[in-house]
Design a protein that fits this description.
By secondary structure, the protein is α/β, with parallel strands linked by helices. Helix content is 34%, strand content 28%. It is built from 9 helices and 15 strands. The protein is globular and about 60 Å long.
């Protein structure tokens, strides 16, 4: 058997063509062999530029290809569940872009489909397998910063194009689903716990109705997490975890560089003008790592890096944040 898992891609989304596919093509365990789009001309252009041998003018044709073992699903948010379910029903494992769906009920449908078909489904939180995040969690677990008490983060960019899927509320657009899901996921990852309740504020675009600015406070059993996300602010991202004896700052938490080492800063507070110890990680591509680890789980029939149950837990927090913004009070997760 070929060691490399044969992948097909649904659609020619920018993240797929510009970042994920080129990175997976560098992997030792992943081989992107087919791409499908409802626009055959667009599919051929993307496949030609990436030297992908098979091109299909419909998603159904791709799923009918018996040689394809796994599907990467970067479709708009509102299509994640439908085409992930159709993929596993066709006997394909699925790596689906975040968010896995639009709410907890969507995630439950995927759990049922996984259990019914026996295929693997994973939410594509590429950050979770990057060395800088694995090290951050290990440092917290080791007691390097004492007892973790709080996480704070901001993630933003500016996009007010009404034609962009991020600005279409019916397609699952908005800041919280697009990027707010990251600080929620990473705070859960590093706290190694689930939040109990959420309190949130949301400001919606008056014309497109998507949440353009969302801030939330999450109560964990032993601490708190606060974050702000926006799709109408200057591009910026930082996350910090503060404990009783120190602090860890992740310099570029989401879009870790692929052309230089990633860095985190571990600071004991002795010099408020300094950044503490700098820990560098060898240059790597988190999308390559993500693809290969999922491919290894398929090929060696082992547990995937991020279980689907984690996606359901993350969606539960997102739902609570949305509910809190509507009710104006704390909402249980």
């Amino acid at each position: 058997m070929n060691r490399k898992v044969r992948w097909g891609v649904l659609g020619a989304a920018k993240i797929a063509v510009a970042k994920v596919i080129p990175a997976m093509q560098l992997g030792e365990w992943s081989e992107v062999t087919a791409l499908a789009s409802r626009n055959l001309k667009k599919a051929r252009a993307a496949a030609d530029s990436l030297q992908i041998p098979k091109v299909y003018g419909s998603y159904e044709e791709l799923l009918a290809d018996s040689e394809i073992e796994a599907i990467y699903n970067p479709l708009p948010n509102h299509l994640h569940v439908t085409w992930t379910i159709r993929s596993v029903e066709a006997g394909k494992h699925v790596l689906c872009e975040k968010p896995i769906g639009l709410n907890v009920d969507d995630a439950r449908r995927l759990l049922e489909a996984r259990d019914r078909t026996g295929m693997k489904i994973q939410e594509a939180f590429m950050v979770r397998t990057h060395p800088q995040w694995l090290a951050t969690r290990d440092l917290v677990r080791s007691g390097r910063i004492g007892e973790l008490r709080t996480m704070t983060g901001i993630v933003s960019f500016f996009n007010r194009d009404p034609e962009n899927v991020r600005n279409k509320i019916e397609m699952g657009g908005g800041a919280l689903l697009d990027i707010g899901c990251y600080p929620i996921n990473l705070s859960r990852f590093v706290f190694d716990a689930e939040p109990l309740r959420a309190l949130a504020l949301i400001d919606r675009d008056p014309e497109m109705k998507v949440d353009r600015l969302t801030s939330a406070l999450l109560e964990f059993p032993k601490g708190q997490a606060t974050f702000t996300c926006s799709i109408q602010l200057a591009p910026y991202q930082r996350m910090q975890f503060v404990g009783t004896r120190g602090r860890i700052e992740i310099e570029v938490p989401l879009n870790a560089p692929v052309d230089r080492p990633a860095r985190i800063f571990v600071d004991d507070g002795s010099d408020l003008q300094g950044r503490g110890e700098v820990i560098e990680f060898p240059t790597c591509n988190q999308y390559t790592i993500q693809g290969d680890l999922f491919s290894i789980a398929i090929r060696e029939q082992r547990e995937q890096p991020i279980p689907l149950e984690d996606a359901l837990a993350n969606m539960a927090v997102i739902d609570a944040v949305f509910r809190s913004a509507e009710s104006g009070t704390w909402e249980a997760v």
